[in-house]
Design brief:
Keywords: Cytoplasm, Nucleus, tRNA processing. This protein is of the alpha+beta class. Helix content is 27%, strand content 13%.
Length: 254
């Protein structure tokens, strides 16, 4: 029987100043996707009006899901973990995607097609995916709205570097803002909206912390303060009843 003083540690704390040891990294089973190698192995791929890099990435993800048994169709011989997928800078030139160029109009729909197919793969497999998108490079708001609708959760980071807030004393304790655009809501047709709008992050020596944005109080030398005589007069008014007439320098508002 657990004692009342026993507490359970919730969450994880990562020291951002440390790196993963090579021994631990080699003991973990992982897969990588390097586009030049994929191009040399399969020079021709049916892209279905999609960017060839996205098509090859989808084939690689699908192959890992079925070969490693994350599809869930076959009986699991042993307990499986969730396949964790990480994709960086999706929609940038690193993937050969030129969304904002009028010379390649087919690239306008490649990103949304990729997310739509990827969403189907994740729904029918034991998989989860986190994607980073350089939103500052995508000037088309319609495409960003489609990307948001095809995602379960959307979070944006706004850095203070290079902006007016970097030198603003009100934000001296923070390094940027966290914008929660969308939160998943299970078994519903609409998405939940966070009640906490003001979130900020700051980088410490070992931690990356996200907390509510608390601005310092606006104090000045001209702030008027209530004297003891005014407090005594207010106390007399309160003792006489709320319906009494306010006789004094200070009036009470009800």
């Amino acid at each position: 029987q657990a004692s009342p003083t026993t507490s359970t540690k919730f969450g994880h704390y990562y020291d951002v100043s440390k790196t993963m040891s090579p021994e631990r990294f080699q003991s973990i089973k992982w897969h990588s996707f390097y586009l030049p190698e994929e191009l040399s192995l399969q020079p021709k791929v049916n892209t279905c009006n999609m960017n060839s890099a996205y098509a090859r990435l989808l084939e690689s993800i699908q192959r890992i899901i079925y070969q490693e048994g994350f599809d869930g169709s076959d009986p699991q011989k042993k307990q499986k973990n969730i396949l964790r997928i990480g994709i960086q800078s999706l929609g940038s030139m690193l993937w050969g995607d030129d969304i904002c160029s009028s010379d390649t109009p087919e690239d306008t729909h490649s990103l949304t097609k990729f997310l739509y197919v990827l969403r189907g793969l994740l729904r029918k497999s034991l998989s989860a995916c986190i994607i980073t998108v350089p939103a500052h490079l995508i000037q088309n708001k319609a495409i960003m709205e489609r990307v948001t609708n095809l995602s379960d959760m959307v979070v944006g980071l706004e850095s203070f570097i290079g902006s007016e807030r970097e030198t603003n004393p009100l934000y001296k304790d923070y390094h940027g803002l966290v914008h929660v655009h969308q939160i998943p809501r299970l078994n519903s047709l609409i998405c939940d909206v966070s009640d906490t709008k003001d979130l900020a992050f700051r980088l410490k020596r070992k931690l990356f912390t996200i907390e509510r944005l608390h601005l310092p109080p606006d104090l000045s030398d001209t702030v008027s303060r209530t004297s003891k005589q005014d407090l005594a007069e207010s106390a007399k008014l309160l003792s006489s009843g709320c319906g009494a007439m306010a006789i004094g320098k200070k009036h009470l508002d009800f």
